[in-house]
């Protein structure tokens, strides 16, 4: 694929205008005093469907042709991307089938179904979800909406940073959580496009440190299934398309326990 650009994210923002929430940016005196910095939080927990994932999912669906949308879409997710795709499908007048693990949180499962999606289960311990997804789209003709490894997904996720910079202006550093790398790829592209000298850090759980290890080695590495309660970041390796963007843009990855 061609390199993700600031213009790609700006185009995504235009598509999403009026369809998603412009989430608030909040501050905390306690955090400022504890850190010694002025800290700004972009509250994507207040986004439609409860997470930033609707940004990428809806941008992807809006980028499809009418004929492609008419075929319906499919996705695989432990929860947040599932909800984002399900809601995006409803907003664009199509249908969604979501492949979810048998141990998906009950609330995320209920929300995904509540948006009208059909849910199909897989066992994350014994089955390859991407292989199951390929089988699903081959059988049904649906369009696959990846959780992160897609230019439209990355561009959509990056609109969160576009809003942040528009509201806050100058920033010395940007910290963004890393799972598969879609949010990080989009947001880091915005940060470097607007402020070339900015420091950009990913943040991972120390038990789910696939991106940290991959950047240390200079290539994608895989880890065993990580023992973390944060089900949305249980990735075994960074994305094929996201990782080159992270290598180009990140100053490093911070690990938390």
The coarse overall form would be globular
Low-confidence stretches: none
CATH architecture label name of the largest domain: 3-Layer(aba) Sandwich
DSSP, total strands: 9
Strand order of the largest sheet: 5-4-3-6
| CATH structural class of the largest domain | Alpha Beta
CATH topology of the largest domain: Rossmann fold
The main pleated sheet reads as: 4 strands, parallel
Number of helices: 11
Mean pLDDT across every amino acid position: 95
Count of domains: 2
Instruction: Provide the helix percentage.
Output: 40-55%
Written account of the structure:
By secondary structure, the protein is α/β, with parallel strands linked by helices. It folds into two domains: 6-52 and 150-256, 3-Layer(aba) Sandwich (Rossmann fold), CATH 3.40.50; 54-144, Rossmann fold (3-Layer(aba) Sandwich), CATH 3.40.50. The protein is built from eleven helices and nine strands. It has helices at residues 6-16, 29-35, 53-63, 66-70, 80-91, 106-114, 129-140, 151-168, 182-194, 210-217, 242-249; strands at residues 25-27, 40-42, 73-76, 96-101, 118-122, 143-144, 173-177, 199-205, 252-256. The strands form three sheets. The chain has a four-stranded parallel sheet, with helices on both faces. Strands 7-8-9 form a three-stranded parallel sheet. Strands 1-2 form a two-stranded antiparallel ribbon. Helix 1 (6-16) packs across helix 8, helix 3 (53-63) crosses helix 5 and helix 3 (53-63) crosses helix 8 (151-168). The chain is globular and about 55 Å long. The protein starts with 5 loop residues before the first helix and ends with a strand. The mean pLDDT is 95.
């Amino acid at each position: 694929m061609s390199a993700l650009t600031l213009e790609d994210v700006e185009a995504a923002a235009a598509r999403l205008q009026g369809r998603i929430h412009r989430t608030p940016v909040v501050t905390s005196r306690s955090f400022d005093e504890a850190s010694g910095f002025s800290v700004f939080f972009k509250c994507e927990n207040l986004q439609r469907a409860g997470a930033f994932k609707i940004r990428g999912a809806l941008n992807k669906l809006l980028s499809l042709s009418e004929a492609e949308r008419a075929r319906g879409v499919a996705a695989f997710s432990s929860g947040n991307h599932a909800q984002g795709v399900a809601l995006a499908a409803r907003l664009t007048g199509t249908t969604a089938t979501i492949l979810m693990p048998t141990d998906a949180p009950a609330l995320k499962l209920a929300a995904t179904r509540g948006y009208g999606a059909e849910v199909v289960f897989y066992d994350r311990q014994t089955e390859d979800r991407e292989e199951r997804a390929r089988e699903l789209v081959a059988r049904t003709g649906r369009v696959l909406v990846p959780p992160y490894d897609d230019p439209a997904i990355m561009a959509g996720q990056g609109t969160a940073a576009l809003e942040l910079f528009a509201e806050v202006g100058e920033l010395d550093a940007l910290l963004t959580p890393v799972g598969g790398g879609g949010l990080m790829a989009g947001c880091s592209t915005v940060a470097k496009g607007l402020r070339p000298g900015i420091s950009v850090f990913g943040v991972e759980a120390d038990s789910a440190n696939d991106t940290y290890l991959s950047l240390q080695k200079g290539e994608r590495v895989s880890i065993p299934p990580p023992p973390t309660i944060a089900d949305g970041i249980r990735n075994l390796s960074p994305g094929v398309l996201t990782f080159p963007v992270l290598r180009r843009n990140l100053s490093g990855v911070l690990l938390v326990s």
